[in-house]
TrEMBL record:
It comes from Parasphingorhabdus cellanae. Pathway: Cofactor biosynthesis; thiamine diphosphate biosynthesis. The gene is thiD. Gene3D superfamilies: 3.40.1190.20. This is hydroxymethylpyrimidine kinase. It is an enzyme of class 2 (transferase). The lineage of its organism: Bacteria, Pseudomonadati, Pseudomonadota, Alphaproteobacteria, Sphingomonadales.
């Protein structure tokens, strides 16, 4: 492992800077890592919503990945918005070539504003990536669209089911393994509309901590604390779901 952990983020670009590649770069850099990227899509969006999406070709996504891997290598991989089944299958093919590298898969389906970022065919292709991951981080809605918690049984990868989309005052994130064992983290809801990019930030932070040698449980705990600090540091930009801030480490 390099002294500065190298994290490759495979995700879409958010022109408003709240989520996606921009959130990943900000998080990885703030946590002391070196951020590298393979952009899957360019989106036109702000705090109010997504107005346009332009997907990269699968060949271009792979070209970015291999340009990075052949020269710099990576200590961990974070996967976010993929945008199409063809890109998802191309990324799955790349993952098959990896050996002993943490892979954190955040199965992005819907933007905070409600815009759809993955259709049914793309979600079906996610099932080619899941068994090749070290951790999958769906929210409650994404878990249901993946097939529900029953699908976890027998898979060689744990799921962190995020409770932020729940309605209770106390939010619960649950780590569930193929054996059904659970670990839970609880936290009170932070009252803010500036929460754009929470999932991206969490998964990027987990990947960075894993690349630094933390266990999955330890990385999740630290990443959750980082996201909560980011929510509290939000600068208040935008009329809708604004970006989080950059907390002091």
């Amino acid at each position: 492992m390099a002294s500065c952990p190298r994290i490759l983020s495979i995700a879409g670009s958010d022109s408003g800077g709240g989520a996606g590649i921009q959130a990943d770069i900000r998080t990885i850099t703030n946590l002391g890592g070196h951020a590298m990227t393979a952009i899957t899509a360019v989106t036109a969006q702000n705090s109010a919503g997504v107005t346009a999406v332009d997907l990269m070709s699968p060949d271009m996504v792979l070209a970015q990945i291999w340009a990075v891997m052949d020269d710099f290598d990576a200590d961990a991989i974070k996967i976010g918005m993929l945008g199409s089944p063809e890109i998802a299958l191309a990324v799955a093919g790349f993952l098959k070539s990896l050996r002993n590298k943490p892979v954190v898969f955040d199965p992005v389906m819907v933007a905070t504003s409600g815009a759809t970022l993955a259709d049914d065919r793309t979600i079906a292709a996610f099932h080619k990536i899941i068994p090749l991951s070290s951790l999958v981080t769906p929210n409650l809605d994404e878990m249901e669209r993946l097939g529900g918690e029953n699908m976890i049984a027998g898979l060689p990868v744990p799921f962190l089911i995020k409770g932020g989309h729940g309605e209770d005052a106390v939010l619960v994130d649950r780590l569930i393994g193929s054996d059904g064992e659970q670990e839970r983290w609880e936290g009170s809801r932070i009252d803010t509309r500036h929460s754009h990019g929470t999932g991206c930030t969490l998964s990027a932070a987990i990947a960075t901590y894993l690349a630094s040698g933390d266990s999955i449980s330890g990385a999740i705990g630290k990443a959750r604390d980082y996201v909560r600090a980011s929510l509290k540091a939000a600068p208040g930009f935008g009329a809708g779901h604004g970006p989080m801030g950059v907390p002091k480490i």
